[in-house]
């Protein structure tokens, strides 16, 4: 029997593999309110390398949390943003694979391949009515060719990666997600439909797809963009998926995945309304928000916890250029708004917490401060046991913040309110 992921799944990231129980406690609270959401622990190869952690550690931490809380529903471990070069170490530890084909997006396909593909989808040429989208889609052979040129090579690479994983782990033993969000422009409904048709032809049993949406999904802060436009795009994408599932025989549970979904407060309402209207599922990834709650919990604990939280900032401030470089497209930091380490060293615990906690209405909240610390987990990793030991010593304040953040600021507005 093939592994089928549930309707609502919630990607939880845990940089240092200490907050599994606190994360799961938030999901368990949602279950008590009658909403079934399954956790998916995700940690990319880049994060493992930055932390210096073993890939197996993510599975170990997830399973330990499940056992400790007596969680009897499903849980998954995501090999996040993998490709053929790095997938092997994940094969024994993951049952969810986010296939990353960013390098192949935009690489022109062979003209013969494009032509052959278009010949297999004649139904897409012309005026196409999609239930849920008010205006018909107008598609021509030329417009389909343009989309195929942009994405066909990426889809074929996704198929190659999928088949390799299946050859090692067996078909039907894992959940497949294809990431299409690492591109400059959001996919239009006709483009997403062409992509899904190509995925179906490639034989990928895709269960979630991550398209590119309008606006900026910066790390750890709210969505930046036109919320009304996002809501329309999200609903259009749901309509395209429902149509493609019926038309091309894709898995019936295929759902949208929102990457960098943590702390995107302004679009949670539109997402919730769209899900309620359509009955669609959702996968949403929230990773770095938990690492920031660790820092908040350390600061709240005072003493050595507050000292190390301040030290992390001071070192991140000094090394900001190298820390920010890998994330340049997903952060917007105003250097003029970054407090000096000397100022931060004089802060009380409350001042540090207020600057970092994602409460945009608080007078002391500092988005630039938060984003720099978001990418600064490498600093904590270099501290080794000194940092990890404090996570244990300050567990009460950290776990309380982790659980409250995920439940109150993420799960409730997405699935409950």
In short:
By secondary structure, the chain is of the alpha/beta class. Helix content is 52%, strand content 11%.
Your description of this structure?
This protein has an eight-stranded parallel barrel, surrounded by six helices. It has a two-stranded antiparallel sheet with strand order 5-6. Helix 4 crosses helix 5, helix 8 (265-278) packs across helix 17 (395-416) and helix 9 crosses helix 10 (303-318). The model has no long low-confidence stretch (mean pLDDT 97). Strand 5 and strand 6 form a beta hairpin. The chain folds into two domains: 8-288 and 408-416, TIM Barrel, CATH 3.20.20; 302-401, no CATH class. The protein has helices at residues 20-32, 45-51, 56-69, 111-120, 141-169, 189-202, 227-248, 265-278, 288-301, 303-318, 320-324, 341-345, 349-356, 367-374, 377-383, 385-393, 395-416; strands at residues 8-12, 38-44, 76-82, 96-100, 126-128, 137-139, 175-179, 208-210, 255-258, 282-286. The chain is built from 17 helices and ten strands. It is an alpha/beta fold and 417 residues long.
Q: Which key phrases capture this entry?
A:
11% strand, 417 residues, 8-stranded parallel barrel, TIM Barrel, two-stranded antiparallel ribbon, 2 domains, alpha/beta
Q: Topology of this protein?
A:
Layout: E1 8-12, H1 20-32, E2 38-44, H2 45-51, H3 56-69, E3 76-82, E4 96-100, H4 111-120, E5 126-128, E6 137-139, H5 141-169, E7 175-179, H6 189-202, E8 208-210, H7 227-248, E9 255-258, H8 265-278, E10 282-286, H9 288-301, H10 303-318, H11 320-324, H12 341-345, H13 349-356, H14 367-374, H15 377-383, H16 385-393, H17 395-416
Parallel strand pairs: 1-2, 1-10, 2-3, 3-4, 4-7, 7-8, 8-9, 9-10
Antiparallel strand pairs: 5-6
Helix pairs in contact: 1-3, 1-17, 4-5, 5-6, 6-7, 7-8, 8-17, 9-10, 9-13, 9-17
């Amino acid at each position: 029997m093939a592994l089928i992921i549930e309707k609502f799944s919630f990607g939880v990231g845990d940089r240092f593999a200490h907050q599994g129980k606190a994360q799961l406690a938030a999901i368990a609270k949602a279950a008590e309110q009658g909403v079934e959401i399954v956790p998916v622990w995700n940690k990319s190869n880049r994060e493992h390398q930055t932390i210096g952690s073993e890939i197996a550690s993510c599975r170990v931490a997830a399973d330990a949390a499940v056992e400790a809380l007596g969680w009897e529903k499903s849980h998954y471990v995501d090999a996040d943003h993998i490709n053929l070069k790095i997938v092997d170490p994940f094969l024994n530890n993951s049952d969810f694979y986010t296939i990353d084909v960013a390098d192949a997006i935009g690489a022109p396909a062979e003209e013969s391949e494009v032509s052959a593909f278009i010949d297999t989808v004649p139904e897409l040429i012309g005026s196409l009515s999609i239930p849920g989208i008010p205006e018909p889609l107008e598609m021509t052979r030329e417009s389909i060719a343009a989309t195929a040129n942009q994405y066909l090579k990426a889809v074929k690479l996704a198929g190659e990666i999928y088949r390799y994983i299946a050859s090692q782990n067996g078909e039907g033993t894992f959940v497949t997600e294809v990431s299409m969000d690492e591109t400059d422009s959001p996919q239009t409904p006709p483009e997403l439909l062409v992509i899904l048709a190509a995925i179906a032809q490639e034989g990928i049993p895709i269960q979630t797809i991550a398209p590119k949406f309008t606006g900026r999904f910066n790390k750890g802060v709210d969505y930046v963009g036109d919320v009304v436009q996002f809501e329309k795009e999200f609903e259009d994408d749901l309509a395209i998926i429902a149509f493609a599932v019926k038309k091309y025989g894709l898995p019936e549970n295929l759902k949208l995945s929102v990457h960098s979904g943590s702390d995107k407060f302004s679009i949670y309402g539109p997402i919730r309304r769209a899900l309620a209207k359509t009955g669609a599922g959702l996968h949403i990834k929230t990773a770095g928000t938990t690492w920031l709650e660790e820092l908040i919990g350390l600061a709240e604990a005072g003493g050595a916890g507050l000292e190390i939280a301040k030290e992390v900032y001071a070192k991140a401030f000094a090394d900001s250029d190298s820390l920010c470089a890998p994330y340049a497209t997903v952060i917007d930091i105003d250097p003029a708004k970054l407090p000096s380490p000397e100022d931060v060293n004089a802060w009380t615990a409350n001042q540090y917490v207020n600057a970092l906690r994602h409460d945009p209405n608080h007078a002391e909240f500092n988005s630039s401060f938060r984003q720099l610390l978001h990418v600064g987990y490498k600093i904590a990793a270099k501290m080794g046991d000194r940092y990890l030991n404090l996570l244990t010593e300050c567990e009460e304040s950290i776990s309380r913040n982790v659980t409250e953040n995920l439940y109150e600021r993420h799960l409730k507005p997405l699935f409950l309110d």
